[in-house]
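Model it.
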Amino acid sequence: MRRVLVTGGTVFVSRYIAAYYSARGDDGYVLNRGTWQQPKGVTLIQADRFQLGDVLRPYRFDLVVDTAYTAEGIHKLLDALNPFGDYVFISSSAVYPEYEALPFREDTPLAENKYWRKYGIDKIAAEQALLQQVPAAYILRPPYLYGPMNNVYREAFVWDCALQNRAFYLPRDGSMPLQFFYIEDLCRFIDVLLTKRPQDHIFNVGNQDTVSIRQWVALCYRVAGREPTFRNVYADIDQRQYFSFLDYAYTLDVSRQHALMPEEKDLFQGLRESFAWYRENGDQLNRKPYLQYIDSTLSNL
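Modeled.
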């Protein structure tokens, strides 16, 4: 049994990771301020990661899985930890600038991305801070994550449309590609890293194949038992007013990941499992006013 610390543990990514390790029999801990319901089977260490003091001194962890957003967050945690085993940092594909050649590789130069801005800049700084202090840490850079416990209004938005028998408003012809990664596959890859101990320590992670917006929406409707009717939006409108992704197409080279872990969750099956969670946990979604905008603006075009 390992003692595993997951920072956060309140919503989607960190919450799922904490539940994953607890379900596998590890001694799981989450570090957060205690203002959310905690995952089942884990121990809460209630604290602000920026004001830790001696709260972590009684513990020694075999694995730390961190989702920090800033370099300061990294420094504060490392200063408060006793000696630990492995450290895995969940970074982001937002660290790659939009103007570099696709697909982004792990050695693509990092810089501000005009779509992600401060979020990407802060993740770059967090990566650098971590590697300065813990060179053996593993850093993972995912694209769009999906799966059970996803409170972000992405596939859930499509399911809301499907179950209300709405037509779906596509940005332009719907051909923009999206790259996804199933949240359980992220956890499985962490396990692979800690078993195989590869020499590389920075990995893009994600599905090998992309899917167009239109294909993804059709899959979501199919999971919900519906067939979509599409309306194409060619007007000069910010698509984030009515759609759940940025108008930004990119792909990651995930060959390093797939050399170590060739298997990945089929997107349709992953969406089915996500849909089951959505049907039982609609109150946990962070819904955005896309439908109101569609009804007030797009339906009149």
